[in-house]
Structures are given as structure tokens and as C-alpha cells.
Records
---
Amino acid sequence: MCFSCFFGNPVFVAAPNIDTIVSLAKRRGFVFPSSEVYGGLGSAWDYGPLGVELCNNVKQAWWRWLVYERDDIEGIDSSIILNRLVWKYSGHEATFNDWLIDCRKCKGRFRADKIVDNKCPSCGASDWTEARPFNTMLQTKLGAVADDDPTALAYLRPETAQGIFINFLNVQTTMRRKLPFGIAQVGKSFRNEVTPGNFILRTREFEQMEMEYFVSPTAEHSKLVDYWVEQYLEWFGSLGLNRENLFLYEVPGEELAHYSKRTVDIMYRYFPEREKPWEELMGIAWRTDFDLGTHSKNKLDAEGKRLNPDSTEDLSYFDEAAKQRFYPHVIEPAAGVNRTVLAVLMDAYSEKTNDKGETRVILKLSPQLAPIKAAILPLAKNKPEIVGMAKAIKRSLQPVLRAVYDDTGGIGKLYARQDEIGTPFCITVDHQSLEDEAVTVRDRDTWEQERIKVADLAEHLQKRLKPYPVPESI
Ligand code: GAP
């Protein structure tokens, strides 16, 4: 039976909350709670066979868009553990703090800025200790040293950005770059979050996609922030995010980080069920010349004293045309891989319900992000010729796209499974295929079926796997 007949006029429903995605993610092999065999580890998650593909596709889409398609951005991959002095001069050792308070009644410990109406979220009391700073950089020790040797202390990076700043001159000189240009990096960052939670939204180990765009001190910095906000809105549109689920937050002065003169956060509707549904997806900050200046040996303070007596380099730039030396300013779009993945899953989630109230989940992922692009399904698994042909098609598609062969159920079940994990195309090999050298290609979103010659299949699929066009509303 054809599914569209079975379902009559379907009703689509987007993900009503994060829990719906947690359940789908575990059921279908996207994300598992970490260390489950030992009772888990709070707020740590492992990416399964489909989750790792989805994350990789997000990162590759980002890298292609910035590093390959533009001509003004280079990529790097710096160490996670850097010289401790990097974090001294970046300001993280002194200021990368959450403010903690303890409830005197129930001894619960909370972030001071998250307390509503001065009431303890556990017991409702309002008897608090003084707020005190808690540095959220994760510490480790390097080498076989004594436990109390202070010189062995090192940090796991809390942002990828600093690895870019300290390599500014290396990249600029080796790639012979002139301003403006950017450096992109994607990789793991770590923060000892006091209150992690909400699935992969806030974890202690996460991945960032950061780009530092270096410009002259006289550039129009605020306009450049707006420019990058627009660029990212377009990019998120191409990943399939609905503009209505994105919201721009102009960060007020008192909330700005120590290095920022202006920051705009792109928020996503992670909590559609709540009165306040928005949470940060990414931020776009004008970091001024703070970072290059602070890591430079020649930068002086107001009294003419060297700001950084430990640095051996000067990360300034000589502008040939203007015959001037200066510290470039930076516009930084900083996005989270995991938060992008969660937003993509929430926006792609849809349910079709028929007249009888039966529901199917369809993950309408942008084809470029789908973990599997095509599933090859034999209509009769007891017919060696059909199975052989299906497996040969899978092998022939593999060099150009991610394809799988599946014969572990009836065709209806196989279609439903692929819909639920977002596979854009199901390809069925049937008895007629043996004669006409053609297969049926079924579209995930419309359930329409087309007969395509095997010889034309790879080209046909590749044409249809392009990113979504940017919606007109953006
Ligand atoms: N270099 C600037 C910077 O790190 P941020 O706003 O602290 O800025 C950028 O982080 C992005 O990294 C956030 O918008 C978010 O997407 C992601 N991120 C930050 N902390 C995170 C956490 N604990 N868990 C998951 N993602 C996180």
C-alpha cells in the first residue's frame, strides 16, 4: 500500500520540545547518554553512527562555506592545550568565572545569575551565602609531576579563538594575506559548567566553529557585525532552519564580555513550550584589538609600560598602502556545533498523523546534512539477482555519496525507518529492474516515486542533494 494513501491528508507537527529529540536521538542512533554502563556521567553525550555523520556534515558545510567558497578566509587547527600564559593574557584566568551561591537551608549550589525571585530552586528558601567567583576553565597537569607542582598546571581551552589569535602572524605571513581576512577553526572546547543540561545544549565538552575576521582599526566595525549576522542567518537558512525560529539579541553593555564593544547573539527557539523559548545558538562579537594587543610584546599601557612582558612576538600588522603599523580589530562569529545540530534536528522533526491517529516521524533534514543520502532496498530479499543488483548499486554510489543497503524488514518498515533518520532517497530494486535496468527513487518529503535508469542514478541523486535555497524571508 502506498503511504500517502494510508495517511490521507497528513498533519505536520514540529518538535514540541527537546525531550522529543532526546528520545528520537537515542532510539535511532544519533546521540546516547555517555558512560551509561556505569550509570552515566551528568550531561555528557556520545554521538552514535548517525550523530557523528550529522555533526561532520554540519562542520563540513561550515568549512566549505567559509574556507572554500570565500576567498578571504584561511583555516587552522591549533592545540587544545596551550601555554598557560595564553589564558593569563586573554583574561580568562582572571575573569572566566561563573558566580556561585549556596542555599544555607538545603546546601544546594547554584549560579547566582540563574536564580529567579531570590528563591532556591530546590527548597524555595531565600537564605543565601555571598556570591563568589568560580573559574570554569577545566584544569589538567602536564608531565609526570608532583600533585602540588603549580608549574604543571594547564587548561583545556574554553574557546578555540585564542589558538587563532596566537597564530595570526604565522597565517598572515605564510599565506601572504592583506587585511581584511579571516581565520577559521573548528574543534573541541571545554568549560566546567556549574549547571550543564538540556541535552547537548550545555555540556562541559562541546565543539565550536569560530572565525576571527581581522580588519583595520578604522573599518566600520558595527556594520561588519551586521554583515556577519546576515551571512549567518543565510547560512542557517541553507541548513534548513526556519527564520521564525531565530531571534536576534543585541547584548546590552553590562552583559558584554571584557573584550567586546558590541555583540549580537543569534538565538534559537529551543524551548517552544516555554514562555521564554530562546537560548543562544551563536554570538557575533566585535572584539576590538584586545586579543592581538594583549598577546603582543610591544603594546604599552597608558603609563608607557609593556602590557605583556612574557610575549616574544608582536602581533601587529603593517599596512603598506597607509604606511602604518597597528593591531587589527576583530569581528568574531562564534557558533556551537552541538547547538547547531540540536536546532537542525528540532527544525527538521515532523510528524505525519493519519485519520486513525497513527503517527509517523519524518526528519526533513537538508539533504546536505542527512547522515545517509540514499538507502538501497531490495523488494525481494530471497531473490539473489535482486539482492546482487541492489548491493552493486550501493557499491557504485558509495564513491559519490553515503549510501546503505538494507533488507532487514518489509518495504513499509524500511521506508519508515529511513524517513525517521532523514534519508532523502530510498531506492527500490524490484523484479522489473532486472529487465529494464531501472530502479524506483522515492522522495522522503513528498513520497513521490520516479523510475530512473541505473546508469543515470548517481547524477540524478547528486543534482537533488544540493543545499536548500535560502528562503526569501531572510
Ligand atoms: N570565542 C567566543 C566564545 O566562545 P561563547 O558565546 O562563549 O563565545 C560561542 O561561545 C558558542 O559556543 C555559543 O554560542 C554556543 O553555541 C557554544 N557553546 C558555548 N558554551 C557551550 C556549552 N557549554 N555547551 C555547548 N555549546 C556551548
---
Amino acid sequence: MIWNEQLETISREELQNLQASRLRQTVTNVYENVPYYRELFSQHGVSPEDVNGIDDITKLPFTTKASLRDNYPFNMFAVPMKKVVRLHASSGTTGKPTVVGYTRNDIETWSELVARMVTAAGVSDEDVAQVSFGYGLFTGAFGLHYGLEKVGATVVPASTGKTEKQIMLMQDFGATTLIGTPSYALHMAEVAREMGINPKSVGLKIGLFGSEPWTESIRAELEEAWGLFATDNYGLSEIIGPGVAGECQERRGMHISEDHFLVEVIDPETGESVPDGTEGELVITSLTKEALPIIRYRTRDITVKTTEPCACGRSTARLRKVSGRTDDMLIISGVNVFPSQIEDALLAIDGVAPHYQLIVTKKGYLDVLEVQVEMKDTAFTGNWRDLERLEGKVRAHLQAVLSIGPKVKFLEPRSLERTAGKAKRVIDLRNK
Ligand code: DLL
């Protein structure tokens, strides 16, 4: 089913006209109402008259997380606070959070976009949907909540934590849909097993997972554990939260809500656009946001865009699974390594559990990467020879895939800390 047939199957030409007129409005709006943008545009020698078609977007400067941080908390807002009905924030690793605001219309748009996304994944008013994202300043839970309610699903706002209780609720309320981070959903399956419950018996049909990078190997683990159909969805607070893009049941990329967002993919080094089908950094301009319109936001997320038609009938462009962020790329002795590459390599080996952490240190001038990974219960025999064999296998495989030889340390099942939110995979101690 398609939630908004008219806009999700719009012809490319009509879409581009709509995007162009909304872009012009947005640019004029930020120029007139956000002093920061007026100043930035002047510094770059551009003004709203220079922007007519969507290709003119490249004349405009980028916005970054630093722009938001420098304007903390509300200076990037384009409306008076009277019109702002909701605030959310994303916690950075250091310092103040990034604050985002919504008008009543923004909340309505957000619900509409999430409604499209959950419908594309297969959720309807027949479903009981458990939201296991944390309710609070994080956009994940409230975003999914309103969109699911809009399609008429029965929403269970379970939030995070109290995992055993969550599993009981899923069983008792007959949950068919689980919403959360992929890492927490894996953890929930583990806890269910500890409670003597086969996760498959819970009866979940669809999983809507997002908010952190996850590979196809994790998708396979989740589907195997819960017996559900796992879909990916993407978003970020600065843009709106979840609802920016999501997979349909074809699962061949995440459809972008292009009537609300203009998406570019650029070379992160040069800032130049790359052609469709080429990997690069995702840059997003909002086209309808009222409280916090945003121009050419550098997401730091790495993906590929395609406008090839999708078998589902939607005409919108799609994004390949986000493989990581430009800022979580590790450079180990000069070799670029993404956590997702390590995840794929690890999970290709039997006996390795989908719980790992990458520790980077310095020994003299040399970078040292240690991959700490848990074994599956079934592989944990207690015999050190088995352990050695598995370690050797993992080390050789990582060496072949990454061209660097990390240290490998096997951990007992359940020894790494589990988080209910986004998993912390990398601990880089080099500059500490
Ligand atoms: O994580 C919004 C969201 C909530 C998306 C729930 C999907 C579901 P932030 O906390 O601001 O917002 O984090 C945004 O998380 O720039 C990506 O690096 C990462 N991210 C989000 N979704 C995905 C995904 C929410 N499906 C940052 N795959 C983004 C990979 C993702 N990374």
C-alpha cells in the first residue's frame, strides 16, 4: 500500500517543479527571517534572486552541525517562539546538544512522512506497534509514535529499558511490529531467550529499525532471531527526525520524501556533487520546514542515491543503506576503515556474535586496532583450542578484507555493555 499515492508516485518532472518552487520559498524565508543565513549568503555573494531551479542549490553555502551549535539554542529558528510547539535535541559527544524546533505544521508534516514510511514497510491499522526508542528529547520515539498513530496502528509507547517487561508486553498485547535501534532489538531477542521465550513465538511480523548504521548481516541476524521482516529507515534531528527516508517492501534502498527534502550527494573532500550511483556524503535541504528550515546540511552520512524506478511504484529517489559517517571513518596506520566493513567481515564467520567494539590506541607512533567481539553461546565451548582456532580465523579474514591486521580479542557471550539506544562501536583512545 502507498500512503500518499499522489505525492509518492508523482512524475519526476512535476516533482522537480514542486521542489524548485519550494526551494525558492525556503531560500527567501531563511534570508528574511534568520540573520545567520542572511549573513552567510552575503559572505558567499548569493541572494535569493540567484536561486530559480533546483540546480541553483549548488550556489548556496553548506550548513553544518557547528552552525547549529554556534546558534544555540534558538537562533536558527525562522519563526517566533510563540509558533514553536515542540523542541527536541540530539546529544552530541561533547558540550551542548543540538536543539531543533517544530511548529504545528511541522509536526503535521513529520507525522505524514513517518506515516508514508511505516506504510511502505508494510505497517497498517491492523498492527500493534511497540515503540522501543527512548521517549524524550530524542526524535526517534515521538516521530514514530505520531506517524504510526496516523496510519491507525495500535501504538505501545514502551520506550527503552526494562527489557523483560517489554517482552512481556509484546506477548500480552500481541505486538506485530517492533520499532527501535537494530542493536537494541538484538539485545531484546537475547533477553527473551534468557527468559525461556523463543523470540519467534512472540509473533512479530515487521521490524522498523534505524537511527544507527547496521549491515545486511545484522538484518539477517534480526530476521533469524525474531522471524520478522526487517526494514531500515533513516533520519536525523537537524532535518526533522525519522521520516526522511525509509525502505519499502522491495528493500532496495530507502525512498526519500523528496517533496519535503532536496537531497544531494557530494564528495566530502571537494564539496562537489557526485553523479547518481556514486558514493558520497549526503547533503539535505528542507523544503517545507517552518521552525527550523535548513539549507544544504552536511549530514556526514555516507550513501549512494539512485533515481532508477522501484518495483513498488513509488517514483521517489532512494538512498542505499548508510554505511557509516565521514567522521567515524577510522584511519589506522593510513588505511581508511569503516566500522561497517569490520561488522560485515566479523559476521561472515560462524560462531561470532553481532556484538563488538573497536578499540584504537597508539603504541609509540603506531596505531593499534583491537577488535573485541563476543562469541555465540553455541561456539563457546570453554576449550581454549577452539577459541584459538576461531581467533585465528577472524584475524586472517579481517586482514584479507581490511589490509591491516587488527588484534582480535574474544569475549564471553554477554560481556559487552548493551545499550537501549545507539550502540557505541568505536572507542578511539589515540588523542586522549
Ligand atoms: O537517529 C533519527 C532517527 C530516529 C532515525 C529513529 C531513524 C529512526 P539523530 O539522533 O539526530 O536522529 O541521529 C542522526 O543517526 O546522521 C546517522 O548518522 C544515524 N542514522 C540514523 N538513521 C540511520 C540509519 C535519529 N537507518 C544520525 N542507518 C544520522 C544508518 C542512521 N545511520
---
Amino acid sequence: MITPNLIEAKKRSQRKSIVKDAEYKITNELKQLGKGKTYFIKTYGCQMNEHDGENIKAILEDLSFKEVDNYEKADLILLNTCSIRENAHNKAFGMLGRLKHLKQTNENLIIGLCGCMAQEEVVVQEIMDKYKFVDLVFGTHNIHHLPQILNEAIKKKELEVEVMSIEGDIIENLPVKRDSKYKAWINIMYGCDKFCTYCIVPYTRGKQRSRKNVHILKEVEDLIKQGYKEVTLLGQNVNAYGKDLDEDYRMENLLEDVAKTKIPRIRFVTSHPWDFTDQMINVIKKYDNIMPYIHLPLQSGSNRILKLMGRRYTKEEYLTLFNKIKEAIPNVSITTDIIVGFPNETEEDFLQTLDVVNKCQFDSAFTFIFSKRVGTPAAKMKDNVSMDEKNQRLQKLNEVVNHYARVANEKYLGRIVPVLIEGYSKKEDDMLMGYTDTMKLVNVKGDSKYIGQIVQVKIEDIKTWSMDGSIVN
Ligand code: 5AD
Ligand code: SF4
């Protein structure tokens, strides 16, 4: 049993990450582990976690498990969890609670928990104390070891925990079962060294480790051969890509090299304003296949709160960067993340946030109430702001954010825009759906033969969070 430790996870070793291209291996015997059995995986949280889920699915299929979409029919249930806020925690524990009765009717059912929550000692302790029916827990650095962990859990019939707290290495030979045939996530780096004071990610995902460009570019080339139209380069702080590598090769170089592969669409998330360079802006501007869409988390508009958050920029610096991007890249859409109710946030601080939102008029924003994460510096800050007040601020902020989201969408009415058609709309049966270059969701009237293609769509109706249109090519 290897259990997590957040204090260990906070340490940053000087050691360079080792790239391992043969670390994931399974014996012929293990390849039969899931023969005749099914699995169900539920993923919570960010795109990183979604992509980990795609790796986990492929590993389980290497072990001969077959995917089912109803957990009540599965022989193996995995919860791939998220730690970012309290409600993500609660959702995962709520789901675990619902699984308990299944174990009573099927004693061979295997239940596991992985993802960011597995990296927290409070969570693993709670599982050992209160959720004794759980069979395995594995961490974000242990995914490649899943076959062995699962095998142990099945053999021993008791809880198997394997969670490394120091950062793992870079495993290059994980299989992947992608959810889409047209859009792919590509990790370009793991972990984060920014340590914003409210954030648990640097603990659950460890030290920043960038993948080598040759591996990333090879992955893009392979995806092009398979017919993929879009890649999203993933990292907690992608602009810092390369800072931990020996070569002088940074995000702007990587973006340029990925653009030169001619993959039709390139996106990247998430950017931290601190590392967003002029060179990056120039590269985005230069290449048509780098999409004019940037997610640029603001978090707060108050300089006092930004300092307490450890964000390393001021309101003025954020606005300067924002304006520079808007001026350089025509048609760019910019979205953001905002936290309200950080410890002791005053009304004046909140008004500063609203002021930035009014100035930037974001295309959309993810808004959150500050959530205490055990082990982070902000969790120890005294707080005299009531939950009522925080809720009111969130509501007020959402009204303003929604207003600008609609205003941004209204500018599209009557325009013809490129949309990658991904499949059928979830809401309307006979409609297709896809995203514009600027990441606007469009429900599209048109023939299903266009699924997987980038088509020209005339926008005919506008809503706050989506638009309707028809294919015109
Ligand atoms: N409380 C509330 N929101 C948080 N985020 C990260 N940590 C917290 C927290 N403790 C938000 C930030 C980040 C997004 C992914 O989640 O806005 O950009
Ligand atoms: Fe968390 Fe800040 Fe790193 Fe983003 S940049 S993952 S908010 S610590």
C-alpha cells in the first residue's frame, strides 16, 4: 500500500524528468484479466482528466475488458475524480455512496477511484474508514501501473492503494482510446509549479514536466494520418511549456511546429497570463490553423486579491495583455475563469472584478465561489465574508458575464463561419452540432455526410450559450 502525502507532493525536486517509452507493459496473462468482463468509467473535472480517462479506457481494453455505458451492468467501475472544488469531491463521494448496494448484490464487482482525489490523504483516509467496499485507489502518477494494481486488487480481495506523491516521470507508451474521431487532446506537459494559493493542482498533479517536442509532433502526425481535424494541446499552464527542458524551446516554438504539420485546427488550454509572450501572440496571428480562441483566466480584478492569490500580475497588466491579444488577432474570442469570495474579498475588491469584466466583455466565463482545499495556503486564511454574500456576488457576476456572452454571440448573426461538425446535436434530434474556430457551439441544419468536416455555416439564430445555423457549402 502506497498512500498519498500532500506535504511530500508540495516538494519540487531538482531532478530532471525521465522520459520512459517502455514503462507501460502487460504480460500475456494480464491480457486476459478482463476477458468476458465489462467496465464503466465516470470522469469528473478538466480536459486533463478526460484525457487520462481515454488512456485508462485503452489500458482496460488491453486487459480485455469491454466498455458499457450503464454502471449497473459493469464488472468494474472506476471513478476518475477531480479535486478542484468541494462540489467535485461531493459528487464523487455521492456516486460512491450509490455504488455500495451494487456490491451487496454482486460480490465480484470491483470498484476503484483514481484521478486527483486519489492524491489527497484526507480522501484516501475517508475511503479506508467509511467506504470499505472500495477495491482499488490509484493516483495520477500511477496510471501506467493500472494492470498490476487491478490484478492485485482482484487477487487479494482487499483494498489496493498505489498513489505516488513525488512527481512521476513522463510515460510515452500509454495506449489511448479517444472519445472523438475528429478532435484529439494531446498532453504537452504535466503538473504545475505556479502554486496559486487557492489551488490544489500543483499537489495532485506534481511538478511541471514538459513532453519532448518530437513526441508531441509525432502524435500530431499520427492523428493527421487517422483523419483528425483538430488537436487541443493540454497543460495546466501551457505557456510555461519547455521551461523545464534543457533546450531553448518554448510554447511559441511548439505552436509554430504544430502549425507547420498542417493539422486544420489547433487549440491550447490553459494559459496563465504570466507566461503569455509576444512571440506566442505573433505565432497565433501568423498561422491560420491556430484557432483565434484563448482561455485566459483572470481569477480576480482586485490587485489586493490577486496578490493574496499569488497570481503574479496586476489588474492593469492583465488588461494590457488582453488588449494586446485583441488588437493583434482579428476575430479572437477570449474566455476566462473568475473566483468570487476569496477569503476577505471586500465589496470594493468584487467591484474591481466587475470592472475588468465590463472592460473585457469576455466571450464567456467560468465563475466559481472560492472553495477551501485542505493543504493549500488559502485554506488557512481567515475569512469574514458570509456564504450569502459570496452567493450574491456570484449571481451578480453571472448576470454580467451572461450579458456579454450574448452580446458576443449577437455579432455572429447573419455571418458565415467555419464549423467542425462533430455529430448529432444532443438537444435537437435532427440537428448536427459543432464548434466555430472561435469555440462557439453551433447547432446546424444539414446533411449527416458533413460529420467530421469543417464546413461553412450561416448563423441564423442566437442564444446565450449557443447559436443555430445552416450549412452553406
Ligand atoms: N476554489 C474555487 N475555484 C477554484 N479554481 C481552482 N481552485 C479553486 C478553488 N479552490 C478555479 C480557477 C481555475 C479553474 C480551473 O478552477 O478559476 O482557473
Ligand atoms: Fe492552479 Fe494556478 Fe497552476 Fe492554474 S496556474 S493549475 S490555478 S496553481
---
Amino acid sequence: MSDKTALITGITGQDGSYLAELLLSKGYLVHGLIRRSSTFTTQRIDHLYEDPHESDARLRLHYGDLADGSRIAALLESIQPDEVYHLAAQSHVRVSFDEPEFTGTTTGLGTTRLLEAIRMTGLPCRFYQASSSEMFGTTAPPQSESSIFHPRSPYAAAKVYAYWITRNYREAYGVHAVNGILFNHESPRRGETFVTRKIAHAAARIARGEQDALHLGNLEARRDWGYAPEYVDAMWRMLQQDEPGDYVVATGTSYSVRDFLGFCFEHAGLDWEKHIRFDERYLRPSEVPDLVGDASKAERELGWKATVHAPELARIMVDAELAAVPAPARERSLTGA
Ligand code: NAP
Ligand code: G4F
């Protein structure tokens, strides 16, 4: 068991919740940064809750926001983490076209605020940056650590900036900072407006007779979809290396949105073609057509390899939706996300 201390930004998100579970299971003291909100946002980590009045609580939450550099520095000073996993971001590509400036200041500059706080406090902590396969954009697959970036959205442009500022703090100041270039990874905890969760949720509702149609955009885009719990293990492995580096994390297989629809609806006993409607509001001004990762460096150096691929992932996600208490339709058609 480890006696290390970690700080996770984005602990209330999909990846943050799985990473918190993983680190707690390894004996870490886990601190999480959460945003103040008028309603609770901790649903994904409620099962990990420990009474903060108990002195041996291993999970501790702190209010803070990526826009607030002085708060981040004060937290680092008091927590003194050995490892910082920076996962917080405005993470929705389609939304980033509506909110490009906000996406830049959180997804891009948020990384600088954390790295600068590490530099100013002089902490010898290790730093993980949640980089993204979106950075490759239109670069032809398979994409690896040496592939060229061609960002196709404000989100991807912000992630390219964050990738390079992470490398810069490594080269300029010797910070043990790594980029995990993760391809799409999904789970039953995936945000409800990402396409896999949207499809799995609708398939379960249609199977139960609670709705009839699902509106989607581009069905031809291809993604390399993996299983989120496996991907947070790769993050941890990266920070255990003696030398910091950058790693692609992916399954190496790609399927179209149309394929994923087929996997989910077939598993729910449905013919997807009877239920899908096109809605142009879900199209992006510029699209990323085809992502397939080459994760051979991660396999070689981290001993990491994906085992769950899209067909099994679809079954996991639909089963979780079918087992869940029926919930309202979650398609946010007013927003186009
Ligand atoms: P997610 O579910 O959208 O979670 C994002 C997290 O960031 C949430 O905890 C959110 O808090 C927090 N956050 C957003 N803005 C913030 C702010 N201004 N200050 C503080 N916290 C803020 O994302 P995810 O799927 O877990 O992804 C984790 C990271 O990996 C993100 O950086 C994402 O861009 C990146 N990534 C994801 C994938 C993927 O396929 N999932 C692939 C590559 C890279 P609230 O709960 O309050 O909203
Ligand atoms: O599920 P998506 O919204 O994920 P996207 O854009 O690939 O981004 C996700 O993965 C990135 C890694 O490559 C992360 F960095 C990022 O944070 C996020 O987690 O869309 C997947 C594909 C797109 O091509 C989109 O155009 O599905 C297509 N799509 C078709 N109809 C739709 C819809 N996407 C959404 N969200 N909603 C639709 O109705």
C-alpha cells in the first residue's frame, strides 16, 4: 500500500471518479478539487464519501476553480501532494464552439495556472496533464506520440496549448510533467451528452417504451473507444515512471458512430434504423473524421494494454442503463450538445 498524497482536479467527472477509486485502493490520501455549485455535483463519487470529521478520512474535497490561480497555489501549499492529476476541463467539443473563450481559459490556461503554482511553491510533485486525441484532428490514423497536431475545435486548440505548456515546464523548470494523450474512453459514468452515453441511454429508454426517437448528428465519424476504468490505470502508471514522457493511450481499433449505434440497439433488442432522426444542430463546424491510436509505447514502457473494445463497451453501457432506475430523457436538444 502507498502512503502517497494525490490531488485530482476534475474529481467529480467520469475519469476523476475512477481515478479516485483506483488511488484509494492503493492506499493514497486523495484530495479533490470541486467547483461550488448551487446543486451537488458529487454523484459520481458519493459512494467514496468519508466523514471529514473523522481524522483518518482518505478522501478530502476542496472548493476551487481553474480560473482562480491563487486558490490553486494555496491548496497545493497546504496539501503538499506527491502527484497532481489535472483532469478538470470544459471537455465537450461541440460546446467549445459555442464557448471558445471560456474553453480557452479553463481547458488551456487552467493547466498553466496549475503548473505555475507548482513552480512558485517549489513542490517536487509529479504532474499529469489530460491531453486528448482531439489534438490530432485531421491527421491520418494511426496516430502516435510523433503524429502532427491539427486541432479542429476551440477545445482541441486549448488542449494543444496545454500539451505544450506541460512540455515547456518539463524542459524549462524540470517539473516531472507528463502528457497522457488519451483517445475516447467511455463508461456508464460518461457525461450524458457524449455520443456513446446518449445512444446507450436512449436504447434503454426505447426498449422500455419510454421514448421512440433519438436525434443525432454525424454518424460517419470514427472513434477509438476504450473503457474508462482501464484508462485511469494508464494515467497512474505514467506518473510512476522514473523519467517523464508523453504517451498515447488507445485500443488501436476504430468504429463509426453508426457501428456503435448498431452494437447498442442490437444488445437492447432493437433495430436502430427505425428510431434514429438526423438533427443538424449536433453537427460541428469542423469535424474530426477518424481517430485510431497506436499505443505501442504505452504497452512497451508502462505494461499497459486495453482489453475492452467498442462492442463490449456498448454492452456494458446498455446493461448499466437497463439496470438503472428509469430516468427522464436526457437529450438536451435545446443546446445542440
Ligand atoms: P468530464 O466528465 O467532463 O469531467 C470534467 C471535470 O472537470 C468535472 O469534474 C468538472 O466539474 C471539472 N471542471 C470543469 N470546469 C472546471 C473549472 N473551471 N474548475 C474546476 N473544475 C472544473 O471529463 P472526463 O471525460 O472525465 O475527462 C477528464 C479529462 O480528460 C478532461 O480534461 C478531458 O478533456 C480529458 N479527456 C477526456 C477523454 C475522454 O474520452 N473522456 C479523452 C481525452 C481527454 P463539474 O462536475 O463541476 O462539471
Ligand atoms: O462523444 P463525442 O461528443 O466525443 P468527441 O467529440 O470525440 O470528444 C470526446 O473525446 C475526446 C478524445 O478524442 C475528448 F478529448 C473530449 O473531451 C471528449 O471526451 O462525439 C463523438 C463523435 C463526433 O464525431 C460527433 O460529431 O460523435 C459524433 N456525434 C454524432 N451525433 C455526436 C452526436 N456527438 C454528440 N456529442 N452528440 C450527438 O448527437
